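Tutorial, part two.
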Amino acid sequence: MFIKDFQKLTLLDFPGKIACTVFTAGCNLRCPFCHNALLVTEIDNSFIPEDEFFAYLSTRVGKLDGVAITGGEPLMQKDIASFIEKIKALGFLVKLDTNGTFPDKLEAILKSGNVDYVAMDIKNSPAKYGKTVAVEDLDVGLIRRSINIIKESGVDYEFRTTVTHEDFTAEDFEEIGKLISGAKRYFLQAFKDSGNLIAQGNTPESKETMEAYRKTAEKYVGEVRLRGI
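Running the prediction step on this input gives:
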């Protein structure tokens, strides 16, 4: 595992749980608004050894509920499945974040029963997906497969979209709603400039417009909420 960092305590990254967060290095997408650019485009050879992470985690048994694994894209890690298994063996719950471009690996991990919550980013409507993630030839079929795998897995989940003023229209949220139709939970996240972005030029959307987008998506999804407003 290429662990770039871990946050020893979070009340935000794993809904309803007291957790720590592991940040893995590397991603196959280049979303301009990504707030973890150093995990994507400027990766050096300094990594945290697994032994160091698990040494810390062993001291948190009975004190933390779980571990949130994010990135980057965690499913790019060759040994992600065994890493998750080790966390579960210590008695912790596991939340996995993914961009949905590795459906086969996602399906295998969810079938293992070692993931308790999965969060998948929905970057935009299908027609604008490649442009939004700066990978023009992205196969949106991978995204569709991952959505269906998650919905049918029996694992608790959420879909989420980071909303920028420049990248979205009401029509996009009609199409996103259709894409994840029948999902039980969807979050529209407010874009925030972390100062560590892949590219400049994005700005937040207004609360009023975010609420309008929420109502559009609500026609297709059981629960739609705004996050970070």
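The first strand starts at residue 3 and ends at 10. In part three we will examine how such features are distributed along the chain.
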